[in-house]
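Chapter review. Work through the record for Reverse transcriptase domain-containing protein before attempting the end-of-chapter questions.
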Amino acid sequence: AGSAIAIKKGLQFTIINNFLMDTIGAKIETSQGPIIVMTSYSPPRHNLLPLQDLEYMVRNRYPTIFAGDLNTRHSMFGYTSTPNTKGKQLNNLILRNSINYIGPTFNTYFTHNSSTKPDSVLTNSQFFWNYHITSGGFGPSDHLTIDIKISIKPIKVPCTPIQDINNVNWDEYKNQFLEVPEINLNGKTIADIHKEFNTLYTQINTAKDNTTPTKIYQIKNNIKSTAKFKRLSKILQRYSDTLQATGKTEHLSRVIRDTQLMLIQEGNQCKFEWWENQITKIEQAAKDNTKFWRQVKILSGGKRTGIPNLITQENGINMIAKTDTEKTTTLTNTWSNVCNITPQENLLFCQNNEERVETTLNQNIDKITPKWNINLQDITDPNTQTLPFNTEDVNQAIKRIANKTPGPSKLKKPYISNLPPNIIKNITHLFNCCYATGIYPKQFKLAEIIFIPKPTGPKSDPKNYRPISLLNILGKVFATLLNKKLVTHLENNGIIRESQHGFRKKRSSTTLIANLYERLAREKSGGKNTLITLILRDVRKAFDKVWHKGLIYKLLQTGVETHLLRILANFLHNRQARVKVNQSLGNTFNLQAGVPQGDVLSPTLYLIMCNDYPQPTHNNQSKNFVKQYADDFTQVIISKFNSNINWAKREIHKGNIEREIQRQNEFEKLWKISTNMDKFQLIHIGFHASPHITINGNIIPNTREAKLLGLEFTYVNFFTKQVRENKKKAKAALAKLYRFRYLNRRLKLRLYKTLVLPLITYPIVPLNAISNYQMEQLQIVQNDAIRWIFNEHYPIICNLPQRHAELRLEYINDRIKRLAEGVWHKIIDEDSQFIRHTLTIPTPIPHNWFPSSYNQTLN
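Structure tokens for Reverse transcriptase domain-containing protein:
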């Protein structure tokens, strides 16, 4: 391996090859003075960077850009694994402001199960040119090629024609609807509802097109040249022409060199003023949360990596999808099967229960089938003479939905939130007509699916992605209204069990972990007569494989109001989707199973689907319980005895475990739910010998460490690994903020509190029970952040107590203790039966490995 530079014919250049390692450079003459381009290759087996070669770049007085494969690994460049020596060396150069790291923002090296970013693009402090870095796709190398465009002028990057929503004339937009009449469909049919929705979309799209300008390019890194810079460029060009005509003289060479230096100095001044302007924009946007974070994201430079080549097998042969069209086809073929319960899969489930469900649905067919005619009197409250939805309800629902990527309608939230009252009134009327008939409009049932890679597993596997449904925005508004009614019914009637902590008010992953940990700590405090095993289950393709008929059956059992039941059943009927990769759209396919990830109704419907699991055994000897967070299902098996543990008691505990696993397996078989055995974890808490668990003749392996909702723990400790991971993640997040070192302190503190501090303190419980040494390890990250906020780098002595006081920033231990108090007050105020029982369990001998969080916080 080695390095090479190809230079376009006709350019004046000088090769620089007096480097020690595989580094080469070229000094290229331009009308704005020389620019030096360098490249190098440092193989993974080399432990050190070519520092002498990089020092040339640092000391050089000309603008210099470097692009090469250095095989550096550090959190600064997006790695979460342990940094290597070369990564640390490059990070130190960056922190000393010796060089600047400008990219790439995407992964450049792909293997069958990972993607990394070993390539680096660097500049020295003299570099003032505009630049734009993009992926050039795959070539003969095993790396993505990197295209770097540099220019003294603003770089215009062609893009797919898009409408510029930031420059819409909203007053003119509203005026487009002045002549739209009020609609009244009472007494008409479902067909008229679909027709009116089509008309409504035509009206909105026409108004949008008439008032929204179109962009065909984007401007990147727009550093504007000053009049002085342009004048110096012309002078330098004139001197260069004279040199070509008359030949080289000492005086002329000195004048050209001095002019070049003045040009570089002025270019750097332009760069500095541009960056100051960007910082000012952040400071001006500080009061508007949305604008503030948008500006931070722009300057952070982070981009989501696109979908790499996908690999599937056909007849034992690897088929590679390279283009967007090929990827779209591959993903469509894969996910049309995923969002369906195939006949082969159906053989694994209970056929008798399927027949029972279908019989029940047939007996209640009138309750789950839409009515053809619209009769608003059916849904009018006899006491108040009001309909289920009014214009205020619709306006509130519009405010609640997020302004995210639009679905098939291509309408973003501002086009809906700026609709005039007469259109909102028509939309409200249409929603009430839908509710009266039980029809969920077909325009709302089509989704465009984009895919986000899962954090682990091969990116080349089309199944190793998380599908996100981009939905019609009016459908999101309607789903928000329906979800509010459904959640109100479920909560008022206590239908969702208290073990469920996902997608519920006053519940979160923090409350689940606190409940679970405190119960374990109290059970372990009783001495050596308790055996505890955690079973962590994760449902395979949970949202994508929901059995529609089974879900409708369970909705019937909840006693939900008939009109709401009818429309929820229709919500699941005849749904369609198509895959989207960049601008490529796949063929439409039917969704025979699943609920769309991205719809507000889907989490609530999933909670209903998995709500009636078999109650765990709870008696004098077995204290089993369950904790749920959406599709994360944790079974806790506790066997208590009156004397110390022996072989016979371990066998009793083994039977307890196998019985609870088998009961849950049978429940899943009834309702066509499949546990992902790749994520199935069974961990025995404590040093007792682990029993061999056998289910249906298969041995379930034990694990010594596990992860639950971000909490990483081992069989003997809930703290050490979590503290180590928190510290690593927080330092990586802090490293990405170093480019904002010139922001004012108030905004840097805001960035730290939002992007770094939560990584240090999660989960509040049980971190409030960690040792002083472990708390100091977390405090180290905050100390580094304070140095960054005040621009005080080592070896400058920093008065940390004074800096904490100036920033009004709590020490980590004080913050965790205060937040833990809030968590426990929140849990107690909810008056949960589970926590009432937990807090009555005595703690006569507190366990050193599992100290009680509650006792340390509130007692």
